[in-house]
Write a structure and sequence with these properties.
Blueprint (H helix, E strand, L loop, with lengths): L1 H20 L7 H28 L15 E9 L4 E7 L1 H20 L7 H20 L3 H22 L4 H30 L6 H5 L5 H18 L8 H8 L2 H26 L1 H28 L3 H22 L2 H32 L10 H4 L1 H14 L6 H14 L4 H29 L16 H19 L1 H19 L2
Antiparallel strand pairs: 1-2
Helix pairs in contact: 1-2, 1-4, 2-3, 2-4, 3-4, 3-10, 3-13, 3-18, 4-5, 4-10, 5-6, 5-10, 6-8, 6-9, 8-10, 8-11, 9-12, 10-12, 10-13, 10-19, 11-12, 11-17, 12-13, 12-16, 12-17, 13-15, 13-16, 13-18, 13-19, 15-17, 15-18, 16-18
Length: 503
């Protein structure tokens, strides 16, 4: 019972913290930041505790709902009886790992935002609300509740980029919001169709999973639902919001957007679209492979041409998100496992990337790598953090990127489709492209002579920034060095979906 309450508090506590801080005056910004940071630390502690406990007791997980999923910490009651909507949250391995990823990124995002300019009261409140929306997406097993949380994040992103961003922030915020709104409208249309055609007057994901939806529905609802979710995952041709959005966003927002929010798309594709409409998935997913040529290969070449650190990282994210969708399109258990591992790995590494980029920008006031040089001499701790993220990005053994990408490639090769194997080979070759832009960027930025006299006085990372780098880097090493137990645990969430797929 206590653990169930703790699980529900993960998304409730950030909202309560925001409400508690409302009466506090803006001039008490330091106290407000400490309250929010303390709240994020408590949520992180709860997420870590529940994840470790459930992982250690995975063999005794209770199937509280009578479904094929083994859910823990289930809370379920009717809250809008007229349309059959429920408050239904629960956790399996996939949920807990994504919640833990979110909690880590939210906490470290607050650490690097300590000196944010502007109204810190509003900024930290928006981080908390954004965190709530993301937690809710991963925890919800009622599709109506899921969609409410799914919509909240777009509004928060717009307010945070438009209010606290840099550069062409209005354009970036509008472009991101309009694109995500397009995806949400596609999702909503498909969900309405599923609700009506299922005949059970319920949004319960597990109940809907027991219904064989008519093919007349699946043939239009699946591509609409899958591509609607894929918008937030920057699947081609809906990738264009990401570079401009990231370039204008504050550091914490970039960390959350690339590290967690972009994973909501492939997560929902796997958890909802493929699970509910497996027959249509088998028809359409082979065609998704053609779109991935841009994601896994061409976006890497675009990254090589850019000089702005955030644009380079944004196109790198598009490429790595393509690997996640490659795992989903392959439709094998090993590829599904690899897709989840890549969600986690890319979440940590891209959060570390954007965190270190934000630290560098706050000191140099530029993101142009041609104007940098010799930074490793002045900010070695930040430089090492950037290099670790880069090594994880190109799949160096010992880090999470190697485990995730290798699993995807092997799982994709298990699919006997010629096109699938061609795209998989291209994806493997894209590692070379990744190595070029990662090493090129690190070399120009960190090594050589110091190009600007002002850089001579740069200060290395402070305590909060060092803590951010250590936490994120340690996460990359943990997932890279100890993959066995985590991989097997992930399978408990993957196999029910795969069983549906081959039914």
């Amino acid at each position: 019972m206590i653990d169930t309450l703790l699980f529900n508090s993960i998304w409730i506590l950030p909202l309560l913290t925001t409400l508690i801080c409302i009466p506090i005056g803006v001039h008490h910004s330091e106290a407000i930041k400490r309250i929010h940071l303390g709240s994020a630390f408590v949520v992180l502690g709860i997420a870590l505790y529940l994840t470790i406990k459930t992982f250690l007791l995975a063999n005794t997980a209770i199937n509280s709902t009578g479904s094929t999923f083994s859910l823990n910490f289930v809370t379920q009651f009717s809250w809008w009886k007229t349309i059959g909507a429920e408050y239904f949250v629960g956790a399996d391995a996939l949920t807990l790992l994504m919640v833990l990823l979110t909690a880590i990124v939210v906490f470290t995002g607050m650490l690097v935002s300590w000196s944010i300019q502007g109204n810190t009261k509003i900024f930290f409140a928006l981080i908390q609300i954004l965190g709530t929306s993301i937690y809710g997406v991963f925890m919800s097993f009622d599709l109506f509740l899921f969609f409410i949380f799914y919509e909240m994040e777009a509004l928060c992103m717009y307010l945070m980029i438009g209010g606290f961003g840099s550069g062409n922030k209005d354009y970036g915020a509008k472009k991101l919001t309009l694109t995500l709104a397009l995806g949400s409208s596609m999702v909503l249309a498909a969900l309405f169709g599923i609700y009506v055609e299922s005949g059970i007057d319920s949004w319960n994901l597990l109940k809907l999973g027991d219904v064989v939806l008519p093919m007349s529905l699946q043939m239009w609802a699946f591509p609409l639902l899958f591509m609607g979710f894929a918008v937030s995952g920057s699947l081609f041709p809906f990738h264009f919001w990401s570079p401009d959005g990231h370039s204008a966003a504050p550091t914490a927002v970039s960390m959350l957007a690339a590290g967690v929010m972009m994973k909501m798309g492939p997560y929902a594709c796997l958890r909802v679209a493929i699970f509910l409409m497996p027959e249509a998935a088998r028809i359409y997913l082979p065609y998704i492979v053609y779109l991935l040529i841009f994601n896994v290969l061409l976006s890497g070449f675009i990254a090589i041409r850019h000089k702005d650190l955030k644009y380079i990282t944004a196109y790198s994210s598009i490429s790595h998100l393509g690997l996640i969708f490659l795992g989903l399109a392959a439709m094998t258990p090993l590829a599904f496992r690899g897709a989840v591992l890549q969600m986690l790995s890319h979440g940590f590494l891209t959060a570390l990337f954007f965190a270190t980029i934000g630290m560098i920008y706050s000191r140099t006031h530029t993101r142009d790598i041609t104007l940098m040089g010799g930074l490793m001499k002045k900010v070695p701790f930040i430089g090492v953090g950037f290099v670790i993220a880069g090594f994880a990005c190109l799949g160096l053994p010992g880090l999470s990127g190697f485990i995730a990408e290798a699993t995807i490639f092997i799982g994709s090769f298990q699919n006997e489709s010629s096109m699938m194997r061609i795209v998989t080979i291209l994806a493997v070759l894209s590692i070379t492209v990744t190595a070029i832009y990662v090493l090129q960027t690190a070399n120009r930025m960190l090594h050589g002579k110091i190009t600007q006299p002002a850089f001579e006085t740069l200060q290395d990372a402070n305590f909060k920034e060092k803590a951010t780098i250590i936490i994120l880097a340690l996460s990359l090493f943990v997932f890279g060095l100890f993959p066995n137990g985590i991989s097997e645990w992930i399978d408990t969430s993957i196999l029910p979906i795969y069983t549906h797929l081959i039914r």
